[in-house]
Amino acid sequence: MRMKFNSLNESKATCTYCLFDFKIRSLFDQFMKDIKVIDSQSSLMSYITGSKIWFGNNWGDIDHVFIPVFMDKRAHWILAHSNIAHSHLDVYNSCYKTIRDVAVLDAIEPLRHIILRLIRRTKVLSYVTPYASLSYILCKDIPQQTNG
Questions:
Q1: Residue 19 gets which letter from DSSP?
Q2: What InterPro entries does its record include (predicted)?
Q3: Which end of the chain lies in a sparser environment, N or C, as judged by fewer CB atoms within 10 Å?
């Protein structure tokens, strides 16, 4: 997938299926006890290498990853946008007036920790930040849902 931000800056992007987020969340408690639990998760690593989904890209060859995140307790979707080179997540919540930041942070916590481990494990990048988790910003200047 290629996306164009403007006529001067062309960036490459990819996305994941919602199953990526589901799998990460299902492993998170185990991961917090033993980070090596991720090392045997070839299905998750195949997202990073670009072989899991049609038209997927190796995360070492792209600039951005878009990750749909389902908030089970709220029956609400949010979007996490990862800037791979900067080890950062921008999080978009179209209902932040009713879905509070603490619930959003709880939903992205597994991604913040596990994505860096997957990138290190697959070695798709020559350099990965030494930090334990991705930094994040909860983006507020976005259109909001009016239906609740």
A1: H
A2: Papain-like_cys_pep_sf, Peptidase_C48_C
A3: C
Q: What is the rounded distance in angstroms from the CA atom of residue 106 to the CA atom of residue 62?
A: 27
13: Cβ contacts below 8 Å, ≥ 6 apart: 1, 2, 3, 57, 62, 63, 64, 65, 66
Q: Which residues contact 33 (CB under 8 A, 6 or more apart)?
A: none
* Residue 146 placed within a domain: no
139 — pLDDT class (breaks 50, 70, 90): very high
pLDDT (tens digit per residue) in 81-126: 999 888 899 999 999 778 889 999 999 999 999 998 898 888 888 7
Residue 71 to residue 131: CA distance in whole angstroms: 26
Identity at 18, one-letter amino acid code: C
CATH of the domain at 94: 3.30.310.130
Angle at CA 11, nearest 5°, toward 127 and 2? Answer: 120
CB 14 within 8 A of CB 57: yes
- At position 118, the amino acid (one-letter code) is L
CB 48 within 8 A of CB 130: no
Q: What is the pLDDT of residue 130?
A: 66
Q: Compute the distance between CA of residue 1 and CA of residue 54 in angstroms, rounded to an integer.
A: 10
